[in-house]
Queue: 2 jobs
Job 1
Amino acid sequence: MIPIALIVVITVVDAVLPVDIVLSPLLVIAPAIAAWFGAGRWATGGIGALAVVAQGFIGWHFGVPASRNTLVQALSIALLSALVVLFCVVRDRRSRVLAQVRSVAEAAQHVLLWPLPSRLGPLQLACLYLAAEDQAEIGGDLYAAARTDSAARVMIGDVRGKGLPAIGEAAILLGAFREAAHQNASLPALAATLERSVTRYLAGFEPGDEAGERFVTALLLEIPDEEPVIRMTSCGHPAPLLLGPGNTVIVPDLHPALPLGVGMTDPGDYTLDVLPFGSGHTLLLYTDGVIGARDRDGTFYPFAERAAQWTHCTPEALLHHIERDLAAHTGGGLGDDVALIAIRHAPTDTPAIAGGRD
């Protein structure tokens, strides 16, 4: 309606102004505005045709409908409108391609990063993934969870590098975890199994010029149902935050091993750390895209300080607050992908789900 109103206004004003003041060339703005508002090619073409008709009316009003000046202006408006319609065709075609790419990326993300269940045994879970690239849906950060007979196992990781190679390594690690999480009695043994899977993949697909430079940091967790503890094995991954009552934040002192992909296949190379974890506590897992986020002045995001404000929140609310606060800190532009998992013991009066999907 705005382009149509603009045509009417220009036509009326041009008709009442003196003959030496000519506004009709401005009619070409109408189809351009229609295209800018996202109108399709037919609507834009219709606006252009209406502008040509308006030019003819102005010429008729002044008694020169067939003058050379009127015909040239009408032809110019028609040609420029046709050019705008051509731009609409190209734009719509690119929009369809982009929509298809985004659809494929979204499907790939759901296949690769299965949404974590909101409940896993006695635990409440929430996860968040933020891609650094505009229009991207997937990257090298990863997470997964599995339910064993009497515990929940969770993994969060970060693949060094970006693009398709990073996605390939993430897919291998996630598949290996979902299978091996049920077959290894301890987290060090699980870490060694994952190391072998990543090493085999890198041996076959690692580019020659990056030999020895590709790896994956990962943090493996086991949370038993009947014990108020968390067992953790770190493979070069940042330690999580333990949020407690009274806005307390504890950064556990872990004993990290080297990242996956460097050849440490002996379970003895990995350390098992144990951390108290009872009711009222929330464990916050993250990738280094959070602590590496900067504002315009280059100041890093004060992750632990900000998370301390929301220690009383549910996992979903906690991640929602962090997402908004992180966007405000960075101005909406991330330098790296971000993955977050919040884990909290469900209230004791809430029935727990005995089983659950991976």
Note: The chain is about 40% helix and 20% strand.
Job 2
Amino acid sequence: MTGPRTSRYARDVAVVAFAQSDHLRRTDELSEVEMVMPVLHEVLAATGLKAGEIGFTCSGSSDYLAGRAFSFTMTLDGVGAWPPISESHVEMDGAWALYEAWVKIQTGEADTALVYSYGKSSPGSVRDVLTRQLDPYYLAPLWPDSVALAALQAQALVDAGETDETDLAAIAARSRADAANNPHAQLRGAVPQGDYQVRPLRTGDCPPVGDGVAAVVLAAGDLARQLCERPAWITGIDHRIEAHGLGLRDLTDSPSTRTAAQHAGLFDAPVDTAELHAPFSSQEVVLRKALGLGDTVAVNPSGGALAANPMMAAGLIRIGEAAARIHRGASDRAVAHATSGPCLQQNLVAVLEGDRA
């Protein structure tokens, strides 16, 4: 086998394993450690590596969801306290933890990395919690929740003639239908659109609230081929952020996604798969335009965030799902996207490719 297309980086790095939990509406009986441990065991078993053989470990989570400071230190019990590990954490979706681990491997300080992320949204109101990320002087005092802000974006798209409620319903229906083949998805099959949450978004246009965990293993060069029959090479990865103030942005477009895609080399060749972190159906419209995705691209064949949206893990799952399709030969070149913040404020784009014969 030859390698992926020409790499733009010092080292070739690939996703060699991916695992995730079943995403559930509530996991009251489980602690974060009990949620994380089975997934970590599964992803390591897929490579044959032990925790002590991993060069770097990085996690992504949010103390706001857990309701206590430095909550991520507790889940390290799921990794194992011995032997000592090189470890880091980001207060972000696990996709950004993967980016840090990828950088660590690029520097040559590690050859392998374990990346995991988790979130328990069920204990509180996610819509209220996410208001704490807004501008504290102008927006936060108004308490616009995440659904209201997404509806503002959706209405801007409708007013611009770029979508309508029928098109949004079709996106939601397709996502839930594709999720029927995903045993980990929280919502699968035909799900009614339901009533308006905030017009023009109905229940079916919004992500489910739930708990979940995801993990991947990264490896460099020839080691990746030893650990995985068909590695998913990260041939490009970049992330960008837009203005904090929503009034300073055109909500019908995502220039940060487009810029990240350009720097990741997305537009150098066609892709056959796109796993987009679009928690709301209207956001898929924005992302498709920013990434230049045509009708021939399979978008969110896993069901995407409309089928399961565990906070802090949904972005990492997009990378993992894209990589898994490459592992099993269902895709040759895929793009994975993760987002954070209101109305697609911050965006990460990764391009993954399989070896060519």
Note: The CA atoms of residues 178 and 301 lie 6 Å apart.
